[in-house]
Amino acid sequence: MSEETKSTEYLLEVENLHTCFHTESGDVNAVNGLSMVLEPGKTLGIVGESGSGKSVTAYSIMQILAETGEITEGSVKYKGEDITKWSEKELHNFRGSKCSIIFQDPMTSLNPVFTVGNQLMEAIMLHTDKNKAEAKERAIEMLTLVGVNEPESRIKQYPHELSGGMRQRVMIAMALACEPDILIADEPTTALDVTIQAQILELMQELQQKLGMAIIMVTHDLGVIASMCDEILVMYGGRVCERGTADDIFYRPAHEYTKGLLRSIPRKDNMNERLVPIGGTPINLLNMPKGCAFCPRCDAAMKICLEEVPEEIRMSDTHLASCWVNIKNMYEAQEENKNE
Amino acid sequence: MSEEKNLLEVSHLKQYFPVHQGFHTVPLKAVDDISFAIKPGETLGLVGESGCGKTTVGRTLLRLYQPTAGRIVFDGDVLFDSGEQYDEEGKLIVDANGKPIKNKAIDVDMLPYRKKMQMVFQDPYSSLNPRMTVEDIIGEPLDVHKLYANRAERRDKILELMSYVGLNAEHATRYAHEFSGGQRQRIGIARALAVNPKFIVCDEPVSALDVSIQAQVVNMFEDLQKKFGMAYLFIAHDLLIVQHISDRIAVMYLGKMMEVAPSDELNNHPIHPYTLSLLSAVPIPDPETARKSKRIVLEGDVPSPLNMPSGCPFRTRCAYATEQCAEAMPPLTDRGDGHFVACWNK
Predict the structure, then answer these.
(1) What is the pTM of this model?
(2) Which long-range contacts (CB under 8 A, 24 or more apart) does A132-138 make?
(3) Which of A144, A226, A308, B3 is 20 to 30 A removed from A323 (C-alpha atoms)?
(4) The complex's ipTM?
(5) Is the Cβ of A108 closer than 8 Å to some Cβ of chain B?
(6) Helix crossing, B151-164 with B134-145: angle to 10°?
């Protein structure tokens, strides 16, 4: 397969993305060279702790960074076209109708002074040439789709009259109203209770089957991504440290950070054992180490980890990790083979 | 099981808050008639969805709120008793007019008991005074209870406390904003430990922390308990963390206690339909089990606590609900091995 036809196969292709925030205390490099691809209809999970750059990656794709933020390097290609070069007008068309986002906090992402129906219709009328009556019809149809009961009366209600789960459903309805190809979900269930979280996750999977959009799921909860994603990216310090299928990440973790993370969370099978925490404190992006971002907290850190950023190496067909420990192990195995 | 004396006994505790709706004032029943006990050195986990009253229970125990009714006994002393009399089945004894028959109410001054019961708060950012140094934050309880003879002893005590929670001596002169979330939570824990309490209410102490830091703090709670032998009431909504740290777990729904059981027992043999759905809704960080397990997705939302369903509050979302559930709240009954369940049908 030639290089060109391959790139058009992907819905979204991010290459060597660098996003930087210019702050008073210096430049904060939130994303440092991230590459990823997204195929139509698939679910990609991005997991990491706060400050790992997972949300900034999502915002960079949508190009809704804060004013101080800037994509300094790299490209984001949507169906082969670099959208970082697009004008504001073209982007306007892209956001909402091709790619939409749902945010973490359904309490603050809806406008409190407009009714739910008004906000839904605004999104529909902005991106399609439907008139008001048709938009209203579509709004009701969308609310029914996301499982809001009595949608005809709900569209006259204000956000404060709805519960957290209902508001998140409205957000999903709004995001999907123009049938986008990509849905970015930025911690969509973090603010919700577990039983409501289960409802929303179920709903998202159901809608994906019905409408066939691709989902980028950004979360810090390893439990949420375990069941939902085709591919998972583990991020730390603005870089991808490991990527692979759920089975790769959970059963064959190859990066020291992923290994540490899996040891530190309580699971059914380690209930009576002591947890093994990751030492140290989360990374300070203003003061990034020169080499691997995780090395100050890593037990297996070597001299080279302090000096150089490890390259991503292939562990299997679906599994890539960037950790010097793997490179060392591979090198040692090769040496052994030679000696034999 | 040994018949050890309970450290804390709570019976028929009610905590209502007045809510003004126009000209009317209606009670919001945040905690409605719950009873439980905690043994010395034990960890009782308290789980439930937001708004179920779990934080209110913790705060009411410490008398940060004035309880509406009920009885709290701590370490053999009655801290609060509104005086209502109950028969052996737990029914309120009333006179001919339907008014409860009351004993003399008891309400004590809490200051001496603050030395024995302490609290660690959820948000390490807002629970530390930004104008105080770490030394003063941890030293404040020592000042209040006059637990030192001179300045040198005060400083020694503070440094000792800081070493328990993994902070260095040079941190003493810094302010709270100079620390990360996990370190701030350590300061909060050192402050609670300062008076050498027998009982600590931990109100969601790890939910504001990053995943990689949570394990550090959970381990620290376990180590400190081994060292000093205090009991915890561990309130959290993260079921996996609660199961990990607790000896017993209590499940609450809309101000009522639904199920109480030893941690392993609750994990392996949950009985109450609410507990079942709660456990099945927890996303499990293991793809194999996640694919196999079937989520029991509850329909609808939690009803408003101002407009509670009659009888069992869970009946509106329960698959097993019958007419009996609408008539009366089922009592917590013993199902063996310390497993108590409040359900008519299971």
Answers:
(1) 0.86
(2) A138/A177
(3) A226
(4) 0.81
(5) no
(6) 120
